[in-house]
Amino acid sequence: MAATEQELSAVFEQTIAADQRIEPRDWMPEAYRRTLIRQIAQHAHSEIIGMQPEGNWILRAPSLRRKAILLAKVQDEAGHGMYLYAAAETLGVDRAELTEKLIANKQKYSSIFNYPTLSYADVGVIGWLVDGAAICNQVPLCRCSYGPYARAMIRICKEESFHQRQGYELLLAMVNGTEAQREMVQESTNRFWWPSLMMFGPPDGDSPNTRQSMAWRIKRHTNDELRQRFVDMTVPQSEALGVTLPDPDLRWNEERGHYDFGEPDWDEFKAVISGSGPCNAQRLAHRRRAHENGAWVREAARAYAEKQTAKRTGRVAA
Amino acid sequence: MTERGSWPLYEVFVRGKRGLNHVHVGSLHAADAEMALHNARDLYTRRNEGVSIWVVRAEDITASSPAEKDPFFAPSGDKVYRHPTFYAIPEEVPHL
Ligand SMILES: [Fe+2]
Ligand SMILES: [Fe+2]
User: Fold this and answer.
1) Where are the coiled-coil regions (chain A) (predicted)?
2) How far is residue A220's CA from residue A50's CA, in Å, rounded to a whole number?
3) Homologous superfamily (CATH) for A5-313
4) CB nearest to A82's CB, from B7, B28, B31
5) Which of A10, A248, A268, B57 has its CA 20 to 30 A from that of A92?
């Protein structure tokens, strides 16, 4: 007495409408599953690739304190990647398969990680702006309709707050330092401001999947809504730091109750997303190398585990 | 698709503090149970989230079917007399 697809679909729609969570073994439309796999994989890849720009500075941290903080932060990002791959696996894909797709350039990751980190101020600005934008994106995902994704996001959001605060504190230390340090912070802000705004994705008119994702309650807000929220939150923070956000059109709009701001360069966004950003090739090559260099470790550990099992079961049999 | 070195999936359960049950927190890959414990510590308890960890091979878990209207749970559905509120007791009777 198997339920028809129509009945299953009705149950799925009811669950979504009641704002309940879909769990791994529930029936779900194929397109819902595909959308989630793509989004979660992309998100996981971003966390993993995202370790590189900051990892670049671990060995050159200016003090032991900063080094310990940066190390912990980068380790968290690895953890975020693992939580997310685990969530994706509940949808019936294999982590190894997703990694293969990443290094074969068949799945994307956030465009922001294709920009280089040129000074230690970048560590602070990434924590402040990039993790800040990520938080804006991720907080609503804690209520995403797919249970494992939502739970991973709750875990991640708890840890992100440390990321943003350590970045901001680093910047505070620098702007209270020498003139050269203040200039470093401004220069870094100039480079990261626009790419951070692009993290929310293309403008709503150019984001064909948003409507369906919102109907499925995977997404709760449009790209432009989140971008506006980020700008509104960030401007006062920039004023407290005494840095200028590099946008001549940025001003408070009394009528709207929001900041007006300029249009990011969407041609640059498209170019970076499709592979021609300043660091795309380097990021992928690094990830590929790490994966290949780790192959013998994975194989050796597996062989050791098999040997141990054989020994144990051999003893039991004897 | 699985490469030669691929590791099995483990489900991870963490006891947050003494007095609480172990609660499922997620999963991870490891070559064996001991490595799964170490990875679980690094992945799920970086901020003192646990005092004890269980790991179980995912394939060793037997689960009920997930649907909420599952007939599997029907036996408990119609037994209201299992709940204390089923019994009417005069209000003046104390401590019941
Ligand atoms: Fe993260
Ligand atoms: Fe982060």
Assistant:
1) none
2) 24
3) Ferritin, core subunit, four-helix bundle (1.20.1260.10)
4) B28
5) A10
State both tokens at A219.
């997404």
Identity (one letter) of the amino acid at A250?
L
A115 CA distance to ligand 2 middle (Å): 16
pLDDT at position A318 is 46
Tell me which amino acid residue B39 is: N
Per-residue confidence (pLDDT) for residue A104, from 0 to 100? 95
Helices A95-103 and A64-89, axial angle in degrees (round to 10): 110
Mean pLDDT within B31-59? 95
The CATH fold of domain B9-82:
Ubiquitin-like (UB roll) (3.10.20)
Joined together, the tokens standing for residue A69 give 């903080």
Residues of A with Cβ-Cβ distance to B27 under 8 angstroms: 86, 89
Chain A interface includes B59 (CB < 8 A): no
Residues of chain B with pLDDT > 70: what percent?
A: 89
Domain-by-domain residue ranges, chain A? 5-313
The neighbour count for residue B4, using CB atoms within 10 Å, is: 9
Q: Which residues contact A105 (CB under 8 A, 6 or more apart)?
A: A275, A284
A213-266 confidence digits (pLDDT tens): 999 999 999 999 999 999 999 999 999 999 999 999 999 999 999 999 999 999
Residues of chain A with pLDDT > 70: what percent? 98
For the stretch A294-308, pLDDT in tens is 999 999 999 999 999
**How far away is chain B from the Cα of A154, in angstroms, using its nearest Cα?**
11
Q: Are B36 and B10 in contact (CB under 8 A)?
A: yes
Contact of B90 with chain A, judged by CB distance below 8 Å, is answered with no
